[in-house]
Each structure stands twice: as C-alpha cells, then as structure tokens.
C-alpha cells in the first residue's frame, strides 16, 4: 500500500518561507496521475492549494498564486511545496494527496485515494 509522509512544517514569521516535502513509501510518485497539497485550518473547510498532474500541468488556488510552487522529484519519490511570502492566513495543517486513478488535473478531494498525515504550518 502507498504511504505518504509529510515533513517540513513549522513556525515561521509572516513573509518567511517554508518547504514542505511529501515522501512516498516506495517508488510511487511517478505512477500517480495527480498529486496535490491541501490544507485545513481551524474552523474552515479543507482547501485545495495546488495540484500537479502527470503531464506536468499545475493548478494553483488564487490565494497562493505567485507565492507557492509545487514540484516533484520522481527519483527521490518526493513531492515538494515551496511556500514563500507566507501570511497568517496560510497557517493550517497541510496534507499531501495522490491519486492512482486515471484523472486529469483536479483538486477534487474524492479523486485522491492516498493521503498523508499532515504537517502543521504556523505563521506568526
């Protein structure tokens, strides 16, 4: 079974940067049709942040465009989220997700069949 493990969260001052990583339990990232980052803040619904399809296309939420960048290293079996210019409203638990089901670029939660446990991002 595929296991995703996020890391890289922490406390950062507003305007600062963090890079989140999502490692796979085995060589799976290259086989996924789509991978994405979601976030969940207290009192809010889960929000799709950015998705990366197997063809390299990406989709970013308007709230993070120009500040966040998604990338993937299939040799390292790792998905990344570079977050720059962090704002207090970016504070949340960030989750990595992957879909092994044939799909295009999407941030539909139901499409993703693998999820990490989440990593906390706090912005002061």
List keywords for this structure.
0% helix, mainly beta, 124 residues, 7-stranded mixed sheet, 4-stranded antiparallel sheet, single chain
How many H/I helices? 0
Share of helical residues: under 10%
Number of strands: 11
Q: What characterizes the major β-sheet?
A: 7 strands, mixed
Shape: globular
Structural class: mainly beta
Provide the β-strand percentage band: over 45%
Order of helices and strands: EEEEEEEEEEE
Low-confidence stretches: none
Instruction: Classify the oligomer.
Output: single chain
Annotate the secondary structure layout.
Layout: E1 4-7, E2 10-12, E3 18-24, E4 34-40, E5 47-53, E6 58-60, E7 68-73, E8 78-83, E9 92-99, E10 114-115, E11 119-123
Parallel strand pairs: 2-11
Antiparallel strand pairs: 1-3, 3-8, 4-5, 4-9, 5-6, 7-8, 9-10, 9-11
Task: Explain what this protein looks like in three dimensions.
The protein is mainly β. It has no helices and eleven strands. It is globular. It starts with a strand and ends with a strand. The model has no long low-confidence stretch (mean pLDDT 93).
């Amino acid at each position: 079974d595929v296991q995703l493990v996020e890391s890289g969260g922490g406390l950062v001052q507003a305007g600062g940067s963090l890079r989140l990583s999502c490692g796979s339990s085995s060589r799976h990232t290259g086989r996924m049709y789509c991978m994405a980052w979601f976030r969940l803040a207290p009192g809010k619904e889960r929000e799709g942040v950015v998705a990366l399809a197997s063809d390299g296309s990406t989709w970013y939420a308007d709230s993070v465009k120009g500040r966040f960048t998604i990338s993937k290293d299939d040799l390292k079996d790792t998905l990344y989220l570079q977050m720059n210019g962090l704002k207090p409203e970016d504070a949340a638990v960030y989750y990595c997700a992957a879909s092994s089901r044939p799909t295009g670029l999407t941030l539909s939660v139901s499409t993703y069949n693998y999820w990490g446990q989440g990593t906390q991002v706090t912005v002061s």
